[in-house]
Design a protein that fits this description.
The protein contains 17 helices and 6 strands. By secondary structure, it is an alpha/beta fold.
């Protein structure tokens, strides 16, 4: 009697466990090219500043990533029970002078699959969070892409399914095999993508400056334009520092949390307001001490500031047109120098930067009309008064 072999196990009888996707907070970015070479990224940093201001105003936005899995990532959650959303933002600051089209969106570099803007955006859909997408460009889009510029839930977007269907078909024709790790394609991307036309860096700077002023006004903490500009400059530095940091040894530096940003904002706004209302010179001393300047120089700086304050706050001099012109020159010069320091254009320590500031004040004095009185003390006193009002730091801020 022959033996019968045992039946083979049916391979399909063992269910395949579902794939587990890592959180965007934990997964290591696939590339760190951005943080290594970020020259010319001022436009992107300005866009990131706008999102930091969004986070200050919108409690649903919890974190902003700078240069992790994408140029910027917005982490949001409507309430404790809702799913966490990761919105992947691509910023295009260098573009041809023409309208964006589906062909531009789907253009493959050297014909390489996966290299188009659309494909690299869709590829981000590989984490446990719900994926959303955003494209930010200087130039506007053509009629085919225009529907993406409307809010995702706006009636002029949801009420036009034909446009959505046509756009999905056009993208699939050019990138028909593109799928994310989660199995999503063009239909998912189009319905979850927002396209922002954000124009020039300078226009974004002006918009952000106005927003800083409005946010502080709603908090009943009115800021002068120069104080708002100081806050905006420090926000830019936060975005730049986060972008420059490496994930491997600076993950926490690359992710800006809402609670920490609010804590910083409240402290800085109050410091600026307190600084503008005091004539003690105490804040100037702190700024110079932080820059590791010696006591004799600090003492002379405080005297120059006191002399300047005594002159500039008397009615005899406060209406002087010459004095106002000099004050404006000092403010402008200090602002430019400080911007260059924080951007990394100037690689100076606190002592060196302080010396450069003094040199620029002397240069302003030397450019006075022939026969005009020497105003070096006034100019330096004005500079120190600006520092005392928390509008100038002699060392680069890492806060």
């Amino acid at each position: 009697m022959g033996t019968t072999s045992a039946p083979k196990a049916n391979a399909s009888s063992t269910p395949t466990p579902p794939k587990v996707f890592p959180s965007v907070e934990d997964g290591t970015p696939s590339e760190e090219g951005g943080p290594i070479a970020r020259t010319g990224f001022n436009y992107q940093d300005e866009i990131a500043v706008g999102y930091l201001l969004d986070m200050l105003e919108d409690p649903s936005i919890q974190k902003v990533h700078c240069e992790t899995h994408d140029d910027v990532i917005l982490i949001s959650q409507q309430d404790a029970s809702a799913q966490v959303i990761a919105e992947y933002v691509q910023v295009k600051g260098s573009e041809d002078d023409k309208y964006w089209s589906v062909a531009d969106l789907c253009f493959k570099v050297k014909g390489k699959a996966g290299s188009s803007i659309y494909e690299t955006s869709l590829e981000r859909d590989k984490h446990s969070e719900v994926s959303r997408f955003r494209i930010v460009t200087l130039r506007p889009v053509d009629s085919d892409l225009k529907i993406l510029t409307f809010d995702r839930q706006a009636s002029n977007r949801t009420g036009d399914p034909t446009k959505i269907t046509e756009l999905v078909a056009a993208i699939e024709k050019k990138c028909k095999d593109a799928k994310s790790d989660k199995g999503n394609g063009a239909n998912f991307w189009v319905r979850n993508c927002l396209w922002e036309e954000r124009q020039s860096e300078e226009q974004n700077r002006q918009v952000n400056l106005l927003r800083v002023i409005k946010i502080s006004a709603r908090e009943n903490r009115l800021l002068l334009p120069e104080q708002a500009e100081t806050l905006l400059q420090e926000l830019r530095q936060k975005a730049k520092d986060a972008g420059d940091a490496k994930w491997a040894n600076g993950k926490d530096k690359k992710i800006i949390e809402r609670s920490k940003l609010i804590e910083w904002w409240n402290a800085r706004v109050q410091a600026l307001i307190d600084g503008s209302s005091t004539i003690s010179g105490g804040k100037l001393e702190g700024k110079m001490t932080a820059a590791q300047l010696p006591e004799p120089i600090i003492g002379l700086a405080k005297e120059l500031r006191r002399d300047y304050a005594a002159v500039s706050r008397t009615s005899k001099y406060s209406s002087s047109g010459d004095d106002e012109t000099l004050r404006s020159k000092v403010k402008s010069t200090v602002q430019s120098l400080q911007s260059s320091l924080h951007s990394g254009e100037l690689n100076l320590n606190g002592t060196e930067f302080h010396s450069l500031c003094l040199t620029r004040m002397e240069q302003i004095n030397e450019s006075r009309p022939e026969g005009a009185p020497d105003r070096t003390a006034f100019l330096k006193g004005c500079m120190y008064d600006i520092a005392d009002r928390c509008l100038l730091r002699f060392e680069r801020s890492n806060s």
